Amino acid sequence: MQLSTVVAPVFAARCTLVVADHGDCVLVDPGAGVADQVTELVERHGLRPRALLATHGHVDHTWDAAVLSARFDVPFVVHTADAYRLADPFGTLGVLGGRTSPHDPSGPLAQALAAAGIGPSTYVEPARVEELGTAPGMRSDDVALAFGTVKLLARHAPGHTEGSTLYLLDVDGAGPVALTGDVLFAGSIGRTDLPGGDDAEMRRTLREVVAALPPETVVVPGHGPTSDIGTELATNPYLRAAT
């Protein structure tokens, strides 16, 4: 499998295209403002989207899910513990979503959307949602997923949100890769002070889920540069403290 990245104009969230044999692909974290660029990549390379996946339910990772799900006629997959966020993207983002109203123009999310030329009221809740943890054969902790020839493992990693999920796969020429969303960044971790965040759960996730990954695992986070588990174990102060 191979990876391509599109960086969203809102909060610089990373949207990752995972491409496997015969052009089958899945899109991880369809953030705000990525739909047209993703569509251009799909059409230029003759790809066949099979699903959209979310590492968690924060709207900077899910904003374009509805339009891309409809455009490609594919499901949007999110952990059941985060599915409720899709109906209330501003409120479930806490202070980042705005203090005075769902579309508070002074809120960081509304300001970032405005800077990208995206109206806050244009958000549409995805209509075709599949929830990890509830579909037949799925468990909430470790789920093997197959979408056409795309195969990955979804591993529950709560702390940043209740339903935060790592997606684990093997990439041609790179070996094991973890799409970590906002669980783990290069040199840092996702914040736990937003609604649904839990510092104790994050420490457990870092200790029992993240640190257990092979050290050569490439880390593709939801924001910022790539890294690897060995480097993070040696230098990331949050991961070191948790282990």
TrEMBL record:
<dbReference type="GO" id="GO:0046872">
    <property type="term" value="F:metal ion binding"/>
</dbReference>
<dbReference type="Pfam" id="PF00753">
    <property type="entry name" value="Lactamase_B"/>
</dbReference>
<keyword id="KW-0378">Hydrolase</keyword>
<dbReference type="InterPro" id="IPR051453">
    <property type="entry name" value="MBL_Glyoxalase_II"/>
</dbReference>
<keyword id="KW-0862">Zinc</keyword>
<protein>
    <submittedName>
        <fullName>Hydrolase</fullName>
    </submittedName>
</protein>
<dbReference type="InterPro" id="IPR036866">
    <property type="entry name" value="RibonucZ/Hydroxyglut_hydro"/>
</dbReference>
<dbReference type="InterPro" id="IPR001279">
    <property type="entry name" value="Metallo-B-lactamas"/>
</dbReference>
<dbReference type="GO" id="GO:0016787">
    <property type="term" value="F:hydrolase activity"/>
</dbReference>
<feature type="domain" description="Metallo-beta-lactamase">
    <location>
        <begin position="12"/>
        <end position="223"/>
    </location>
</feature>
<keyword id="KW-0479">Metal-binding</keyword>
